[in-house]
Amino acid sequence: MHGLQMVDFIANTDSTELSAGIELTEIAPGGEPIAMMPVDSAMARAIGYNQEAQVLQIEFSSGSVYQYSDVEPEIWESLQDADSTGRFFNSEIKGAYWSRRLDDPIDADGN
Questions:
Q1: Among 4, 46, 101, 108, which residue is least crowded by beta carbons within 10 Å?
Q2: Residue 71 to residue 74: CA distance in whole angstroms
Q3: Could you tell me which residues are beta bridge partners of residue 67?
Q4: Closest CA to 47 of 31, 35, 29
């Protein structure tokens, strides 16, 4: 389920069912870390993919890390081959897949 399917699911499910039905751990089964590879991009530092779970993980230049669910292997392959990681992300991934932020960046003061 991704994109508009997720919006429809959320809109038509009460909060009790919703919180019971969606577990954040399901996005990366088994808690296995996703192997990341550095990219030459102003938008991102690294990208990774779990083919079994179809989860794309992106570490952005800001330090934020997001996972995108139900990403087809073809999209992952195209992202790796893209001339511009940022352009490909903006046109093919951003807004098209359900995502969640994995971290909260810490500012320079450690807060």
A1: 108
A2: 8
A3: 57, 100
A4: 35
